[in-house]
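W.,

You were right to be curious about this one. When I first looked at the sequence I had no strong expectations either way, so I just let the prediction run and decided to look at it fresh. Below is the sequence, 58 residues in total, followed by the output.
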Amino acid sequence: MYAGRLKRDVDAVGDENELYWSDLGQNFFDMTLYAGEGNIGHMIEQVNMSGILQQSKE
């Protein structure tokens, strides 16, 4: 898994599936909204614990 912050806006491309953008304040463990039986929530927690998002702001 790779996590980081983009330096500038980019256009998302791909038409396989409609993209759904969600802010990081959501409950990604909610299996009625997100697939993966909590895996997405686990990945988000790993990113939060790594501090990568805070480091990118500096």
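Here's what jumped out at me. The two ends are 22 Å apart (CA to CA). And, maybe more interesting for your project: The helical segments are 39-50, 52-57.

Coffee later to discuss?

I.
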